[in-house]
Specification:
InterPro entries: CheY-like_superfamily, OmpR/PhoB-type_DNA-bd, Sig_transdc_resp-reg_C-effctor, Sig_transdc_resp-reg_receiver, WalR-like, WH-like_DNA-bd_sf. By secondary structure, this protein is of the alpha/beta class. Helix content is 41%, strand content 21%. It has two domains: 122 residues, 3-Layer(aba) Sandwich (Rossmann fold), CATH 3.40.50; 100 residues, Winged helix-like DNA-binding domain superfamily/Winged helix DNA-binding domain (Arc Repressor Mutant, subunit A, Orthogonal Bundle).
Amino acid sequence: MAKKVLVVDDEKLIVKGIRFSLEQDGMEVDCAYDGQEALDLATSNHYDMILLDVMLPKLDGFEVCQNIREFSTVPIVMLTAKGDDMDKILGLEYGADDYITKPFNILEVKARIKAIMRRASLGQSVRTEHREENVIEDGDLVLDKSNRRLTILGEEYNLTSKEFDMLVLLVTNPKKVFSREDLLHKIWGEDYPGDERTVDVHVRRLREKIEPNPKEPKYVRTKWGVGYYYM
């Protein structure tokens, strides 16, 4: 089945170029030119990837991303014309999985899309015969790897794909400390061009979601000067 991508940008020439290139690779592409249109499409369709510009009419890319994260873990790559790191970090704070700075090379965009889709497909294709092997239980925390669901004390928490993958890695290696570099390579891949601050942003966001007190984390802890671990 062809992969389906939503491309969102108010610059029609950019959308046209990306759409043509992705369709050449056999992907199905929907297009939106403002934030509200993008949100409507994301609500009513299933996508394997969303390319989302930051600067959009009606709703900006951050608002769209935040709204999508209320109901979906679809990989979202932010497109930004600004070189300011704050835009990139804000994108991650609102639930984006990656970012690409304009002007970009379409080959880079395609390579990034394929890498993310490949990792997502590998994660979804790992299935075992018994449900018990797909469920990780530790105290009041339950991770269902098949359905990519987290519940704590019976309450479900909506995590992004990267947050979920990071938590699974930490929980399945209790007390093992992973450096930021380790987590970047294991969760984002060896070819990911971002820096280690990406890990810090995702850990902070994960703590804000699941920790009773993010300033005194119960689950995802810090080994100062080394990295993060699960206790």
